[in-house]
Amino acid sequence: MPSAFQQSVIDEFRANAGQVGGPFAGSDLLLLTTTGARTGRPHTTPLGHVRDGERLLVVGSNLGAPHHPDWYHNLLAHPAVQVELGGQEFETIAVPAEGARREELFARVVAEAPGYAEYQAATDRVLPVVVLQLPDPQAPVREITSLADKLVEVHTWLRGQLAQVHAETEANFAARAAHRGPGAPPAPGLGLQIRQRCLAFCQALEFHHTSEDGHVLPVMEGYHPHLRPVFDRLREEHRSIAAVQSALAALLAGVAIAEPDRFRTELAAMIQKLTAHLDYEEAEILPLLADVPWPPVP
Prior knowledge:
With 298 residues, the chain is an alpha+beta fold. The chain has eight helices and seven strands, in the order αββββαββααβαααα. The relative contact order is 0.10.
């Protein structure tokens, strides 16, 4: 729970489209809402940021304390976060930078906000630099008027995230295969970007299928009892996909992906199973949901 001071900053931020007075007057602030690593509850934190093109950079400085702030541990456990920036609100995946990229982005931050260099000098830990991607202003906005539209939106996001994880993973392995010169090729070293995106995908997929099993499918079965074999197949596919998802999640338990080759194998299995499942679900279910309004009518 935010301190009384933090809550006052949050309240003022929301009441004034991101403008805050007092010690933060003129500062570039955002509100970051993470999901508690232990509690699963939402936590909102006011943070300074530096804009870098279509990215926002936030630093886990914790005022130079010897340990990372709680919000950083939260986003490692739950990479999908909510950002409030001025009057804008959006979801994104929080990705800590690594290696040379972290050094480059930290230098970018310090050039605009030199106080972070003082925080780094005050502690032995490397201050995390977290990248928050802004929404693409050119992305088409698809009107959602039915539950069928909403289902397509969710499926499109799942397919997109899985395709991006696959592309990044294959690029990583290709770089290792292209190694030339003396010595053994470097280990794949699958990084935080792949880990964060894949973990966010796994958690979103689990929530989606749990919601379908607990709410959507039982209601639809009541209206369409003759389609019970379809609903039974979808539930069975959910269980089969969950097994692969659990294997992927186990490989993502640490900050680094410790078994890149196994991760690649499990990812291929997920792509095959989920693609076939989504195609089947859309063919069988979308026509039944076209006339169901979204958001639900009270």
